[in-house]
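ARCHIVE ENTRY
Sequence with per-residue tokens
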Amino acid sequence: MSAPPKKRPVVESGDGGLGLGIALFISNGEDLGPIIRHSFESGKPDALMHSLRSIVKKKEVEIEELCRLHYEDFIIAVDELRGVLVDAEELKGMLSGENSYLQEASTALLLKLDELLELYSVKKNVGEAITTMKICVQVFSLCMTCNNYIAEAKFHPALKTLDLIQKGYLQSIPLKLLKKVVARQIPLIKLHIEKKVCSEFNDWLVHIRRNAKQIGQVSINQASLARQKDEEMRARQREAEEHSHAGPDEHLYTLNLENIEEESALDFDLTPVYRAHHMHICLGIGEKFRDYYYKNRLMQLNLDMQISTSQPFLESHQPFLAQVAGFFIVEERVLRTADGLLFESQVETTWETALAKITSILEEQFARMRTASHFLLIKDHVTLLGAAVNKYGYQITQLIEVLEKSRDKYHQLLLLECRNQIDDILTNDSYEQMVIKKEYEYNMNVASFHLEHDDAIPDFPYVAPFSSSVPDVCRIVRSFIEDSVSYLSYGGLVNIYDVVKMYLDRLLIEVLNDSLLNMIYARSLAMSQMMQLAGNISVLEQACDMYVLHAAQLCGIPKRVAERSHSGLTARAVLKASQNAVYNSLINLANFKVDEFMVLLENVNWITEEAPDDANDYMNEVLIYLETLVSTAQEILPLEALYKVVSGAMSHISDSIMTTLLNDGVKRFTVNAVLGLDIDLKMLEAFADEKFDSTSLSDLGKETTFRDCLVEIRQLVNLLLSSQPENFMNPVIRQRNYGSLDYKKLAIVCDKYKDSVDSLFGSLSNRNVKQNARKKSMDVLKRRLKDFS
């Protein structure tokens, strides 16, 4: 049945607009609420009610019309409905019967179904229980396994097991109580593992600090052994170079195979560190352990850096430095093998901090040092510490700088010790020539210092040209060179040779030369001792070349290079000057002794009436002394020194005679006295000529001989004995015969000179004519000298 088409309604109301709108909303099924609300709000509900009533009436009309049109169809439908109702009643009866039958038939089945459902429920519960038990058994098994691992200190598999329980089973444990217990125990077990590994690590900290000293000492010993091997190799190289320049040696190139022990590896156990680090990483707290490790090791280092105040640093420095070396060797191993436990910047910072503390301690201790050997011992151990840690990558520049800064202090102490030793040696020396009776004594005191140019072994007993102080001083100088090289070696200097020479110069000039000068000027030595001192200085001056070669050898400078070098020691020139000083002292001593004999000039009869036949007494004494002086000097002094001393004595004798004639003690003297002086001078000149030739001084080509030292007094005597004294005023004759005479001195002497003694019968002498002529000539000379002055 299809619905009739809608017709547009016709609104008859006066308010047609409103009614049409409401009808349209109703036909479309739209909500009338807004319209109703608007009507009430606008105060016009009556119009709305009127429109609605009109619509109702219209709909009633439409319903009635519809009923009229379908009435017959409706009647038919009602009849059919009644027939269906009857059939429905019959069907209901049939269904009721069937239902009763089914209920009776299914009663037993329902009972069995209930039993089946109950069994299904039991099965489900049992299955769930089995599943639960399996999970619990697995959890219990893992817990037992974890407990066993912990009991066996196998913490890594224990953590793996805990991780498996936590991630794989904890959330799926069906028993809440068990789940709660397991969840509570997991962090406790992890905390227990952390405490256990920390306890092991703390034990390791105690152990490694106790053994760090041994570790450092082993490393320092290895560095010392390597240094020793290096020095031996360089010594063999120097020996090979010397042989190569001296001539071929059949044994030089023999291959010498030695069993050299390998450096023992430093063995210390870091397993507790690795284990603790790994466990903390597995626990997720690796950063916490890194911080814990770093802080504890810093505390240990701070304790290690505290030196004992009750023990001298000389005794404690080796264990102190070994402890520091051991600490940083361990740190380097941890940095290299512990997989990120330490960072390189941390180790560098720690080393710089420790290095600053070490340098501060060394500077303070070096400032207190009063013994050079102690200074050197500590320095050697510091350089060994540097060598030991440097091979592990640690920078040691600050250590080297401290040693360089203390270089002058060390050498000052060394110079002071050498000064005391040299002063004692020079003071206690007898200054007598050494008599060597055995070959080993010769090798020890002469050959080892190359004090003789001839390498051949002499016959014994051997009388050395020096006293015992010379080899003793050479030993001190050689020891000084070795100590200086020892200090400067393995430092920051590449070429230590020049520095060693500088300090060697200081030793020879400031110490040795000063001590020698003190002995010279102390005037405590006899003539023979002073001569021996002069001989000693000459030998020591020549030994400077040996000192330089020894220093070059220790510094690794080839001998041929050192010999070619023109930069010798300044000390050689200084010692040469000191030789002149000792020669002057010898001359003064000789002159002083000569003066003792020249005092006898006062006993000479200057107005004697008879010409003497022999020399005066003083001259005999002088000649005896000069004979002793020359013989002693000839054995000890070099020719140059001998020449200076004897020449000085001769000149002094000449000056003394001239001074005596000039002094007021001699009021006048006669020709007989001059004849006596002539005899004295002839004996002295004969002695001078003989000694000048016998001592080989003539071979030196000296322009002035011993005789020439007497020229002034000889020319004076010749002039006084001359028949024409006035010839002195002739420039040619004066230059040729009297060039050494002084006008003023000659005027004084001539004024005292009397040709003969005034006596009653003086005019009856046979020589009266000659004396008168010489007297006239002398008077002329006196007048002219007065005029000249």
Observations:
- The two ends are 189 Å apart (CA to CA).
- The beta strands are 435-436, 462-463, 669-670, 753-754.
